[in-house]
Amino acid sequence: MNTARRPAYAADAEHHRRDAPRYCPRCGCDLVGTGIAVEFWEGTNRVFHTWCAACRWTGDITPMTQMVGHEPEH
Amino acid sequence: MLTAEMNEELTRVGPGTPMGELLRRYWYPVAFTRELEDFPVTRTRLLGENFALFKTPNGRYGILPEACPHRKASLAYGVVEPDGLRCSYHGWMFDHSGTCLDQPAERDETNFRDRVRADAGAAQEMGGLVWAYIGPAPVPELPRFDVYVMDGVRDVGWAELPCSWLQIMENAVDPHHVEWLHGRYFEFIGRHQGFTAPASFGKKHEKVGFTAFEWGIIKRRVVEGASEEDDDWKIGHPLVFPYNMRVGGGGIEQMQIRVPIDDTTTRFMLYTTHAPDGGVFGDQPTVPDYEIPWRDDNGHHITNYVEGQDIMTWVSQGAIPDRTTEHLGRSDIGVTMLRRMFKEQMKIVADGGDPLGTVREPRERIDLPCEKNKFHAGAGFALDFMSMGSTCFSPQLEELKRLHIDAAARVQPQAAAS
Ligand code: FES
Ligand SMILES: [Fe+2]
Ligand SMILES: [Zn+2]
Fold this sequence. Notes:
The structure holds two protein chains of two kinds.
Chain A: H1 10-19, E1 36-42, E2 45-51, E3 58-61
Antiparallel strand pairs in A: 1-2, 2-3
Chain B: H1 4-11, H2 18-23, E1 28-32, H3 33-38, E2 41-46, E3 49-55, E4 61-65, E5 79-81, E6 84-86, E7 93-94, E8 100-102, E9 122-126, E10 129-133, H4 146-149, E11 153-161, H5 165-171, H6 176-193, E12 205-213, E13 216-223, H7 231-234, E14 237-240, E15 244-249, E16 252-262, E17 265-274, E18 289-291, H8 306-316, E19 328-329, H9 333-350, H10 380-388, H11 397-411, H12 413-417
Parallel strand pairs in B: 11-18
Antiparallel strand pairs in B: 1-10, 2-3, 3-4, 5-6, 6-7, 7-8, 9-10, 11-17, 12-13, 13-14, 14-15, 15-16, 16-17
C-alpha cells in the first residue's frame, strides 16, 4: 500500500483549473482575469458560480456526465 | 474553490492592484482621537502603505505618506506646526493638502518648492475615531453610520490580526458558523473549563438568505423555534461593503470593523454603542478603547469568548488561505456572492465609476437595517453578549451591565423586579 502523503487536495485544485469556465456563455468574453468563477459542490455536482464583467451575465454552470430525470408517483 | 490568480487578485490590497484600487475608494478608521490628543503626530499603516497622521493646533487632521518627498525620512517624526507638518530632518514643511510651504535650506527665488508635493489624503474625526481617505479625488463624504453618531455609551475593543481582511469578511456572510463555532464548540470548551455557554448561539439554522442592498449584503436567518416573521429573517443585519459588518440586538449596536492594514494584517475593531431603551447616558469625553487578548502566554488561541473563537478561525485559516484547495458547499453561497460582489465593484472602479456605498451628498446619519430581537432570545441577549463576548475585557464592563439592567428596570419595572 502506498502511504506517502500527497499535497492535500492538489487534484481538486487541478480539476478546478481545468474545468472552470473560461468564456462567458452569453457573450463569449474571456472570463479569466475579468470575470469570476467560484466552484462549489452540491451532491455529486460541481457548480461554477460565474459572473461576466463584459455583459454582467450571472449564473451557475454545472458540468454533467449523465442526465438524471425523476419518475413522479404513479 | 478559486484559481490561484483569482485568490491573488482578491487578496492583494497594495497600490496599483485591482482590489487595492477598489479599497482606496473608502474611508477607514486609522487612529483613536485620544492618540493624537496625547501626541499630535503618529504613524499609521493602511492598504500596504505607511502614513504620518497629524493634528494641527486648530483641530484639523491631516494625513501624508510617511516618507518625506525630500530624502524619505519619516514624517511620523515630524514637527506639528500651526499650518501643517514639518520634516524633522531638514525642515521641509507640508500643509494638509500636501503643498510644500517651506524648504529652509533652499534659496527662496528658485520655486523648487512649487515642484514638490506630498501626496496627501484626507482625514477627519467621527465618534472618537480618526478616519482617513487615501484614494483619488474627488474625496467622497465620510459615511456617518448610525453607531458612530447615535446617543449611547461607547466601548471599543480592538486587536491586530496576522491575516488578510478578506477571510474575515467572508465570515460576515457565513451565518452557519454561529451554530457551530459559537454553539457546539463554545459548549464543548465550557464543559472543559467549567462554565455554561449561552444557549441562544447554538440554535439550529433552518434557513439562511442574502440580499444585495445599497450598502452591501443583508444576511438573514431563521433559527429553530423562530419564523420568517422574526427580526433575524425580516430585518437581518448587513455586511457593510467592503470592510464592516453591522450587528446588534437588545440595546447593543455594533459595527465590526476590519481594516486592511496590508495583505496579511488586519486591524479588527468592535465599535459598540450601548443604547438600550430607557437608558440614561452620561458624557464620554474620550471613547474608551482596549486591546482584546486573543492568544495566551503559550501562543494558544483564547477561545472561551465569542470573538476569540472567530479570531481562532480567521487566523488559523492562514495569512492568506489557499482557496485553490478549499471545498465550498451550497451553505457557502454568501461567500460566493461576496467574492462576486468584489469583482463587480473592481470592474466599476476600473471603468471610472463610484463603487457600492460611495457617499457624494452629505448626510447627517445613515441608519443601517439591524435586528433588535436577536436569535429570538429576548433581552437576555445583551447580558450574554457582554459576559460571553469581547466586552468581558472592557474596563467599563460593570458600568455597562448596570446601564442595561437599569434601563430594563425603567422600561419594564415589574419584569425586572420579579
Ligand atoms: S468545517 Fe468549515 S472550516 Fe472546517
Ligand atoms: Fe462568529
Ligand atoms: Zn458575457
